Amino acid sequence: MAVLAQDELRLDAAAVDYVLLALYFAFVLGIGYLARRSVSTSLDFFLSGRSLPAWVTGLAFIAANLGAIEIIGMSANGAQYGMPTMHYFWVGAIPAMLFLGIVMMPFYYGSKVRSVPEFMLRRFGKAAHLVNGISFALAQLLIAGVNLFLLASIVNVLLGWPLWASVIIAALIVLTYTGLGGLSAAIYNEVLQFFVIVAALLPLTIVGLITVGGWDGLVDKVTAQAGAQQLSAWPGSELTGFTSNILSVFGIVFGLGFVLAFGYWTTNFVEVQRAMASKSMSAAQRTPIIGAFPKLLIPFIVVIPGMIAAVSVQEMVAFKQTGQGNVDYNDAILLLMRDLLPNGILGIALAGLLASFMAGMAANLSSFNTVFTYDIWQAYIVKDRPDEYYLNMGRWVTVGATAAAIGTAFIASGYSNLMNYLQTLFSLFNAPLFATFILGMFWKRMTPTAGWLGLVLGTLASLTVFLLAETGVLDLPGQGASFVGAGAAFVVDIAVSVVVSLVTRPKPAGELVGLVYSLTPKERLKASTTGEDAGWYRRPGVLAGIALALTIALNIVFG
């Protein structure tokens, strides 16, 4: 994306655009300052004192994910693959989000753990806890680098600053409000950023569709330039890299829809942390379910602009047809903004892009500092200190994580489609963790030894697939290597866990109450239906059913 710093591609921002950006940054930093006044304990800093309403945590839940993965990554996928990109939302997100709300959150919230690795500690012991803590921390630094690189790229395009300077400035802005107010600052900014992002991308989508002659015009142009297969979500062979339609559908449903999606949404503390900040069990369950409704509609303002750019922006059309040029798929949405948006609206769009990247990076930082402080530093390095020590440590950890993200930002710069990079990370870190979680939650016989050994060998299985694909031993174009790697991690983890569990000693049943489904009294898993949680529209099961019905309908309409 550094090529966009060239003068001929620079966005033509005017004074009004800079004023809008300045106002946005003033709001962001102001929220951080105000949130700092409510932080007096480590629980306030890391989990907002478990005091936030469901609508706030629900919007923050989805905004935390509405970073580089959604805006640049999914628009790049839309430009490259077309409608099959919808699978990342309607197959690869919604079902897993609903499962998290209905099945997983009662265990997370009910056990009062402070993080996902802490749940691993209670279920499997110290070895699995440490493995999970380290792998999660590493993943967050790598993903924070993606968001930071893209945030810096926008600053680079807008102001023409060198990329390294843009990276540092962008990092300092996010560090300031996250370090001041902790999770509360991140969450309230994520709610603000959600509305800014929608206000930025909706006009871009509408103007883009008008430019290409409406939906019918887009269909005609995509058919002529890329083929009709990019207008149908199924079977998605170009996305998966499989020539067989049956294997492609299986890869999407099992690799993406089950292993990668459930691995990401149900065990990723970046998302779970928002739900754990809720004020009640019902609110915690509703958090991902509320987030599912905007998640259903986000592809229309992210994927569609990518498709429009691929058939209407001259440089992108040439790149897609020849693979040559000074742009790549990651540039799709920026190029569309450059060509279509007038000043003023351009400022809002730029604020929306900056908001998305800042939301993503802040989510990575706020979850990293919680896991590192509680699950690594407090658990294994410096124990039994006063709470104020860990509160201050959390702020210093945020500074260190920001510095590390500056380094990992340059790893991300080497990928022409960042979704390929991100899906690889998810297959390495999330897929084996999901296998361990789901087996351990529903099989009381699974042992602590199986917990950590399954994680390690599952991760190695995914890494092996990645290396074989990178070296050409396996021919897996597109994002097929990630789907196969995730499947390999899941299968190996399950197999190893079962075999090891049968030859090692499990924990006593009394220690697994609240951690294993069959051993937990059902009343402990039920949410309140009175007081602030009263009303059918606040019942997690009803909301989840509505969201699932809408998801099925969208898959049928655009399949």
TrEMBL record:
Pfam families: SSF. It is found in: Membrane. The chain crosses the membrane at residues 15-35, 55-76, 88-109, 130-155, 161-180, 192-215, 246-267, 288-311, 345-372, 393-415, 421-443, 450-469, 481-503, 541-558. Its main location: membrane. It is a multi-pass membrane protein. The keyword Ribonucleoprotein does not apply. This is SSS family solute:Na+ symporter. The lineage of its organism: Bacteria, Bacillati, Actinomycetota, Actinomycetes, Actinomycetes incertae sedis.
